[in-house]
UniProtKB/TrEMBL annotation, chain A:
Positions contributing to [2Fe-2S] cluster binding: 219, 224, 227, 246
Listed pathway(s): Pyrimidine metabolism; UMP biosynthesis via de novo pathway; orotate from (S)-dihydroorotate (NAD(+) route): step 1/1
Cited function: Responsible for channeling the electrons from the oxidation of dihydroorotate from the FMN redox center in the PyrD type B subunit to the ultimate electron acceptor NAD(+).
Cofactor binding note from Swiss-Prot or TrEMBL: Binds 1 [2Fe-2S] cluster per subunit.
Protein name as annotated: Dihydroorotate dehydrogenase B (NAD(+)), electron transfer subunit
Annotated FAD binding sites: 52-55, 69-71, 76-77
Upper lineage: Bacteria, Bacillati, Bacillota, Bacilli, Bacillales
Pfam families (UniProt xref): DHODB_Fe-S_bind, NAD_binding_1
TrEMBL record, chain B:
Organism annotation: Evansella tamaricis
Catalytic activity: (S)-dihydroorotate + A = orotate + AH2; (S)-dihydroorotate + NAD(+) = orotate + NADH + H(+)
Residues annotated to bind substrate: 45, 69-73, 127, 192-193
HAMAP family xrefs: DHO_dh_type1
Pfam families the UniProt entry points to: DHO_dh
Assembly and interaction partners: Heterotetramer of 2 PyrK and 2 PyrD type B subunits.
Signal found in the keyword field: no
A molecular function (GO) term: dihydroorotate dehydrogenase (NAD+) activity
Residues given in the record as FMN binding sites: 21, 45-46, 99, 127, 165, 191, 217, 243-244, 265-266
Domain (Dihydroorotate dehydrogenase catalytic) ranges: 4-286
Residues annotated as catalytic: 130
Pathways involved: Pyrimidine metabolism; UMP biosynthesis via de novo pathway; orotate from (S)-dihydroorotate (NAD(+) route): step 1/1
NCBIfam families: PRK07259.1, pyrD_sub1_fam
The protein's name in its UniProt record: Dihydroorotate dehydrogenase
Length: 259, 311
């Protein structure tokens, strides 16, 4: 975990309101697991004031670069999208516990399920899984054909199934429809996206899996208790009944927390 | 002699800066960034008798110049804090202040009695100002008599000095400050957060699950300054000032208004090094302004104004 100014070396709009930005700095080399995030101070200002949590989508250790993909939602992400090359943002990270991949073995098949801006952290995960010799099947859910991003990037890593809510491309409906249609067997799944989607995915799959959660944050480091969620069962070691998404998560074992 | 040193009841501080309660957990997270011995004191999260799981999320909402929070006094409970959090802090020599909360006076008394026996606890901060719980908290801090009664009860069981943390959500804060002073408070902490609300335009509903929350951050600083300025002229006990401290000059402003030490809350979230950076900047700024020591500026503002009145 470090605090450093990182320089914007690339930024472009890859779908309506969806931006891809690349940040350069030594912090990039300290990423531990896919699924970790950074807490970005977009400007030293009083509005926006708080840092914004954004997932790490890709890392280039040699070039010391991190790539993020974000949707313009409000003030903070809007300002970020207006930043020019060469400008700096202050970054705290990498934060949190990401997707565990130690147990995945060569030739295992892993299912990745992402919805909207929950997709980015799955990309570096997919790369790491492929590096271990695993097979990756990715289901990506979007609203409509025009919203699609990262499709060709994921295609280079394995089979990709697109779902759109309006049926303009791929399977009509939600990611869970594609999960039901799936004929392949898989040993583990990983998912990130809106809460409703996570709930539905968790309910439709029996294999073990990992889910990545979002919550509004203050500190990002576990000190303020803004970002908690309830544990399904109290932790046997600590007796705790909650988990902090910023430091115990954002990734949890499916069933471990109540979503 | 260390120019930044401040001595308050129970607290020998090498500098006037401490993290504010609830913004620093029990120290463990920020200890990953710097040595906590750099801090003038360490003020930890509110402790209640029983373990509390707090309010539903979302618990924070940003506002221009600040944020609303409705954590709801989530904490692991007295027993756990005695067994784990306080022993972990033993390796640090900075004085420790424990924020104490509860539903009933008996709850406050039990926490104060047990916590004040712990050898590394130097003072208690009596939280009669949390706006985010239905019982206790602010309910004790908006009426002078109730606040005084609770202070007296807690004083009767505490083995360490008691600082009463005041709420700004009152019409006459001076009245409450005087009442708790008469009841035996050793010091005051002020201010806690201001009650506020934000509405999500997409849903038409409040952003916070608790609907309302406490406003902290730069936006509340003038309110804190005004209250400290007024209260410090009417009480003899020292004040720990807080509310929107982000810069070195904010600390000096609080001290000139009448605070003897300061606490930094929200700023930690934006910069995890906020406290040590402020401490580093303080000495330099004293030189620039030509002040020999920090204590010499405490209450300077009211002293100067009163002088002008005499003329
Ligand atoms: C661990 C984590 C990883 C994330 N990764 C990504 C990502 O890779 N790409 C992406 O597009 N988005 C991601 N998000 C969501 C992103 O943080 C929010 O969209 C962003 O903070 C909105 O800021 P804003 O200023 O544009 O919106 P505003 O609505 O103006 O923000 C106001 C406040 O609410 C907070 N907030 C609003 N929406 C969210 C949200 N969904 N989650 C958390 N805080 C929120 C903001 O941080 C800010 O404090 C992630 C969230 C978390 C918790
Ligand atoms: C997330 C958060 C949690 C807080 N929790 C507590 C608490 O447990 N007890 C307490 O007395 N004050 C609590 N406070 C209030 C702060 O200690 C402080 O009085 C207030 O935030 C003003 O200072 P600031 O503007 O520097 O943040 C909390 C504030 C925040 C932002
Ligand atoms: S954001 Fe502060 S504890 Fe998670």
């Amino acid at each position: 975990m470090r605090l450093e100014n990182m320089m914007i070396t690339a930024q472009m709009e890859i779908a309506p309101k969806i931006f891809q930005v690349t940040l350069r700095g030594a912090l990039a080399q300290t990423l531990e697991t896919p699924g970790q995030f950074i807490h970005v101070q977009i400007e030293k200002s009083i509005d926006p004031m708080l840092r914004r949590p954004l997932s790490i989508c890709d890392v280039d250790m040699d070039k010391q670069e991190l790539t993020l993909i974000y949707r313009v939602e409000g003030k903070g992400t809007k300002r970020l999208s207006e930043k020019k090359l060469g400008e700096e943002v202050n970054v705290l990270g990498p934060l949190g516990e990401g997707f565990p991949i130690e147990e995945v073995k060569e030739n295992d098949t892993c299912l990745l399920v992402g919805g909207g801006v929950g997709i980015p952290p799955l990309y570096y995960l997919a790369k790491q899984l492929v590096k271990k010799g695993a097979n990756v099947i990715t289901i990506l859910g979007f609203r409509s054909e025009g919203d699609i991003f990262l499709e060709s990037e994921f295609e280079q890593l394995g089979k990709v199934i697109i779902t759109t809510e309006d049926g303009s491309k791929g399977t009509l409906g939600f990611v869970t429809d594609a999960i039901h249609d799936l004929t392949e067997e898989y040993s583990v799944y990983y998912t990130c996206g809106p809460k409703g989607m996570l709930r539905a995915v968790e309910n439709s799959i029996v294999s073990p899996g990992y889910i990545s959660l979002e919550e509004r944050m203050g500190c990002g480091v576990g000190a303020c208790l803004a970002c908690v969620c309830d544990l399904a069962e109290a932790n046997v070691e600590t007796g705790k009944v909650y988990a902090k998404i910023c430091s115990d998560g954002p990734v949890f074992k499916a069933g471990e927390v109540i979503i | 002699m260390n120019r930044l040193e401040v001595n308050l009841p129970g607290l020998v501080m090498k500098n006037p800066v401490m993290p504010a309660s609830g913004c620093f957990g029990f120290g463990q997270e920020y200890a990953k960034f710097y040595d906590l011995n750099r801090l003038g004191a360490i003020c930890v999260k509110a402790v209640t008798v029983e373990r509390r799981s707090g309010n539903p999320t979302p618990r924070v909402a940003e506002t221009p110049g600040g944020m609303l929070n409705a954590i709801g006094l989530q904490n692991p409970g007295l027993e756990h804090v005695l067994q784990h959090e306080l022993p972990w802090l033993e390796k640090y020599e900075s004085p420790i202040i424990v924020n104490v909360a509860g539903n009933l006076p008996e709850d406050y008394m039990e926490v104060a009695r047990e916590i004040s026996k712990v050898k590394n606890v130097n003072a208690i901060e009596l939280n009669i100002s949390c706006p985010n719980v239905k019982e206790g908290g602010i309910a004790f801090g908006t009426n002078a008599q109730t606040a005084a009664d609770l202070t007296e009860k807690v004083k009767s069981v505490s083995k360490v000095p008691v600082y009463v943390k005041l709420s700004p959500n009152v019409t006459d804060i001076v009245e409450i400050a005087k009442a708790v002073e008469s009841a035996g408070a050793d010091g005051l902490s002020m201010i806690n957060t201001l009650l506020g609300m934000r509405i999500d335009l997409n849903t038409g509903k409040p952003i916070l699950a608790n609907r309302t929350g406490g406003l902290s951050g730069a936006g509340i600083k003038p309110v804190a300054i005004r209250m400290i300025y007024e209260v410090s002229q009417k009480v003899q006990i020292p004040i720990i000032g807080m509310g929107g401290i982000f810069e070195v000059d904010d600390i000096l402003e609080f001290m000139m208004a009448g605070a003897s030490a300061v606490a930094v809350g929200t700023a930690n979230f934006i910069d995890p090094f906020a406290c040590p950076n402020l401490i580093d900047g303080l000495e330099e700024r004293l030189d620039e302004l030509g002040f020999d020591s920090l204590t010499s500026i405490v209450g300077r503002s009211s002293a100067l104004c009163n002088l002008n009145h005499v003329r």
